[in-house]
Design a protein that fits this description.
With 336 residues, the chain is of the alpha/beta class. It has a domain at 4-10 and 36-54 and 128-325: UDP-N-acetylmuramoyl-L-alanine:D-glutamate ligase, CATH 3.40.1190. It is 35% helix and 25% strand. It contains 12 helices and 14 strands. Strands 1, 4, 5, 8, 9, 10, 11, 12, 13 and 14 form a 10-stranded mixed sheet that branches. It has a 4-stranded mixed sheet with strand order 3-2-6-7. A hairpin with a 3-residue loop joins strand 12 and strand 13 (260-262). Helix 10 packs antiparallel against helix 11 (295-309). The radius of gyration is 19 Å and the shape is globular.
Length: 336
């Protein structure tokens, strides 16, 4: 199949403390470009796919920095417009030892959050597309974000373009307004072909409690989701055991309607940057989905790409196809 991937969502700038400091201890912050959908876009573009971002940025140097970062990653920018409002920001206090990382959002009133449906030409962005990727972060921004997400989904349905929806549940965003995440996210997932989410996401959607303890219980949650959402064909998730801030153990799982694959656990130590690793997982899974890979190929590519992202600073994964293909769960020495 030919065609591009359209990713829709807010692009953010991240400010992070140095040396695992708290913000209150810091006199300087590191600045990088990110955002869930932008991270998936950069990952897929780095893996050789034709990817186009649809978003809205302020017409100022911060917006320019975002355009430059996306363009450098190989992401198409024809769907990125400019408008009034500020740049959405978030601040990261990197954890250490048994202190987890913490995020503070500063994105209210951003150019994206203030945008209207008419500010985007979804029909043009989806013309010739193979896939629309979006996440639960956009509707979590408020009523305007809900309208934007629904409009993107509706346009994809009208164009016959499959949808990948990543739940990306952000409690801090949903709790900041009078929201009904279960109702809103259920409508999004109902339209999706691919869902990035685990048993907790499914529990929220269906109002039932599913345990992630063991493959059988995870399959129980997947089967309940497939029964509730007839369009859904693939559910991809990770199981993460956090030993401490610098040491995680991760396994990947991909469920289809008739089968499932769960990988062995990867021992990830010396973590450089935890943020964006879930988006890297989504990019790895979609990389194989776009290439008609089977459930095993999707699961192993997702695991490899998320593990590799833990070694990279910043939100975006810029690792190419050759390095993904050469990945070994046991690591390896210098390649010369």
């Amino acid at each position: 199949m030919t065609g591009h991937v359209t990713c829709f969502g807010e692009v953010l700038i991240r400010f992070a403390t140095h040396d695992a400091r708290l913000v209150v201890q810091s006199d300087a912050l590191d600045m990088v470009v990110g955002g869930a959908e932008a991270n998936v876009a950069s990952g897929l573009a780095s893996l050789g796919h034709d990817v186009r971002m649809v978003s809205r940025l302020p017409a100022n140097p911060l917006g320019d920095k975002c355009r430059a970062a996306l363009g450098a990653a190989g992401v198409g920018l024809s769907g990125v417009t400019s408008g009034p409002g500020r740049m959405g920001l978030y601040f990261l206090e990197t954890g250490a030892g048994l202190r987890p990382s913490a995020i503070t959002y500063d994105r209210a009133g951003s150019a994206f959050a203030q945008s209207a449906v008419d500010d985007f030409d979804f029909a043009a962005a989806l013309d010739g597309a193979r896939l629309l990727h979006l996440s639960g972060i956009t509707p979590a921004l408020g009523p305007g974000g809900v309208s934007l997400a629904k409009a993107a989904v509706r346009a994809a349905q009208e164009a016959g373009v499959p949808i990948c929806f990543d739940g990306n549940y952000r409690a801090l965003l949903w709790e900041s307004w009078d929201s009904n995440p279960r109702e809103i996210l259920t409508e999004m997932v109902s339209a999706a072909t691919v869902m990035i989410g685990n048993h907790r996401d499914i529990s929220l959607l269906l109002g039932e409690t599913f345990s992630g303890d063991g493959a059988d219980r995870r399959r129980e949650a997947a089967e309940a989701a497939f029964a509730a959402f007839p369009n859904l064909q693939v559910i991809a998730s990770t199981a993460r055991h956090v030993v401490n801030a610098g040491h995680h153990r991760i396994a990947a799982r991909v469920d289809g309607r008739d089968d499932a694959v769960q990988t062995a656990e990867a021992d990830v130590t010396g973590i450089v940057d935890r943020i964006g690793t879930g988006d890297a997982f989504a990019a790895g899974v979609l990389h194989q989905w776009l290439e008609a890979g089977d459930l095993s190929a999707m699961a192993h590519a997702g695991l490899a790409y998320t593990v590799l992202k833990h070694s990279l600073h910043g939100d975006m994964s810029l690792i190419g196809r050759a390095e993904l293909d050469a990945f070994s769960i046991s690591g390896g020495d210098v390649r010369r």
